[in-house]
């Protein structure tokens, strides 16, 4: 498949193929969200761990379905509907217009619905933006989503468990967490480079691999900086990844 190919499903009728792909991807997203809502309600994981597992799996899993869509703006925009709907969902719940305690438990740190209009909404906006604007032919989309989902998600899990050695300029962050973030973000980025190259969407190269390493290193530094505590790492980490990626991959 090349950059101008039709959808994987019904390639002769791109619109039907894209909406079929949308239906499949929506089923995945709904099932995953439902699963973590149930684990949150039943207390299977600690609330913060439950939130981070959803944080890691939603975006990375969503990208696995990108090859089902057609290339170009049509496929990108239709695919972006999946995370785009979640922007509206978390906004309505966060503002109290819609009551959904299961979603609040699965996505918030402390069980406050107002948290959803910060981190979770930034998360959904990032994935929607990377999908609709950069799409699967751009390493910027790969770097942005992988450092947000894999990098930031794994950093929190590892940092809480093994983060005894704190970073001097931010005692809330640890060396273990930052190293885990670089490693996870980089490995996920390279993994998706190979995955998309199988379909002809990107051309794998050492230059791209090195670019992913640079972006993951800088993203980890941004995540460890005190400014992320003041604002939100779900906003600043992908912003740093996209801005630096625009320079590195130009």
From TrEMBL:
Its main location: plastid. One of its GO terms (cellular component) is chloroplast membrane. The chain crosses the membrane at residues 15-33, 53-69, 75-98, 119-135, 141-163, 175-194. One of its GO terms (molecular function) is kinase activity. Keywords: Chloroplast, Kinase, Membrane, Plastid, Transferase, Transit peptide, Transmembrane, Transmembrane helix. It is a multi-pass membrane protein. It is found in: Plastid, Chloroplast membrane. Belongs to the polyprenol kinase family. This is Phytol kinase.
């Amino acid at each position: 498949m090349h950059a101008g190919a039709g959808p994987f499903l019904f390639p002769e009728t791109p619109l039907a193929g894209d909406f079929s792909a949308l239906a499949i991807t929506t089923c995945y997203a709904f099932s995953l969200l439902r699963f973590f809502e149930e684990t949150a309600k039943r207390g299977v994981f600690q609330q913060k761990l439950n939130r981070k597992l959803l944080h890691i799996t939603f975006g990375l899993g969503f990208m696995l379905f990108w090859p089902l869509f057609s290339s170009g703006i049509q496929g990108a925009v239709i695919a972006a509907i999946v995370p785009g709907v979640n922007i509206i969902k978390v906004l309505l719940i966060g503002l109290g217009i819609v009551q959904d305690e299961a979603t609040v438990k699965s996505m918030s740190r402390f069980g406050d619905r107002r948290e959803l209009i910060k981190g979770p909404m930034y998360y959904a906006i990032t994935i929607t933006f990377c999908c609709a604007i950069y799409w699967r032919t751009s390493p910027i989309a790969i770097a942005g989503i992988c450092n947000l989902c894999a990098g930031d998600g794994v950093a929190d899990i590892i940092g809480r468990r093994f983060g005894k050695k704190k970073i001097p300029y931010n005692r809330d962050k640890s060396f273990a967490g930052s190293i885990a973030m670089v490693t996870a973000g980089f490995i996920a980025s390279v993994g998706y480079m190979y995955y998309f190259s199988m379909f002809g969407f990107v051309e794998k190269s050492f230059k791209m691999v090195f670019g992913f390493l640079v972006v993951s290193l800088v993203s980890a530094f941004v995540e460890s900086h005190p400014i992320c505590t003041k604002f939100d790492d779900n906003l600043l980490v992908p912003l740093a990844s996209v801005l630096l990626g625009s320079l590195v991959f130009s």
